[in-house]
Give the backbone structure.
Amino acid sequence: MTHSFDALIIGAGQAGPSLAGRLTAAGWTVGFVERKNFGGTCVNTGCTPTKAMIASAKAAHTLRHATQFGLAPVPDFTTDLAQVKARKDAIVAASRKGLESWLTQMPRCTVFRGTARFVSPTAMQVNDDVLEAKHIFLNVGGRPASPPLPGINQVPYLTSSTILELEELPAHLIIVGAGAVGLEFAQLFRRLGSQVTIVERNPRLLPHDDEDVATAVAEILTNEGITLRLGAECIALAQENGQPVVHVSCEQDPTSSRGSHLLLAMGRQPNTDDLALEKAGLQADARSFIPVDEQLQTTVPGIWALGDCNGRGAFTHTAYNDFEIVAANLLDHGQRRVSERLPVSAIYVDPPFAKVGLTEADMRAAGTPVLLGKRPMTKVGRAVEKGETQGFIKVLVHAETDQILGASIVGVGGDEAIHCIITAMYAQQTAAFMRRNMFIHPTVAELIPTVFGELKPLAK
């Protein structure tokens, strides 16, 4: 059967549902396609479930360190991973159900379930239905990558999705990959009671961030008993006595890592391989992303790519911003562009690491005259009161224009406090402006004006 709509939206991740809401409110008819779970990566296997489990791990960590807060120790403390999972699943289910109900009850929106494939630049097939539209929005998301490691086909392994289904705590979890996914799962399972080893090819953590950031995050993890095996060349997988083994060739220690469970956290890949892009006149790039311009339009008029499949960002916040850009340009006669947004992100180890803008390394490479302000969390009253003094606040300012160029916060509340700096940067405000701000006491953010008042030339 053939159906005609004003627009087709493929995928119920962060960009798709909100776009459907805006388009239908403007009087458009929308055909909406989802083949699995509503909510995409964030709701089902990303932000929502992992942060729910991180909250459980934080509670376990606090119980384990009760005496540091003047409380009696908690006797016979154990972790019930099945209950942790049940709590996580309930949170995910509520979010997924709410989103599905909104879409299925949305006026002028027809939901189809199945895999959509192009049959022409203006039509896609879902099961026995052909859906036609002049506007097609691809929001198909991504999935964990399976890198071509030697032995990968002979060893059972977990991904960032399947590890969420465990109901028994791993005795020893080996994680290959030290990006955001690997680091968050490492601390999460260590706090729940697993022994954890991280294997990473790079000689240090977070190679795209400043060295002081990498050092601080490494100290947070090692202080909790996580083993870091960095500079691991020639990683290969094997199985001995029914358990995974990771062979490495590290300069400091070439011995293999043996554990009970193996998690591969080595990036993600977009879900573009089964869209039949060629029938629409589209071609994915070498990394399987769909190329788009500054307004997220593909090379074929009338087709847009949003979210994780376009290579313009791999975060929930960038996907949602993709929706905002497209909706504003289509419905509000706007001229919004991807390049207008600042690079912002966070890694939810505890305490978290959040950043905006450029790094010290970026400044040195460009030869930019820079002033640096930095304050350790040991001198932030709120952090001391909470007993969480790891990390620092750091800001970077152009020495000649006084413009704020970037910031990094490793420390308690840093993922929230950094938004003071993000907002100032979007408003193109200066360090002088930030020094005149008065923030609430006692907070972590209240020290941000102080840090901007302690600027010194960046060391060569």
In short: The first helix runs from residue 15 to 25. The radius of gyration is 24 Å. The chain has twelve helices and 22 strands. The mean pLDDT is 95.
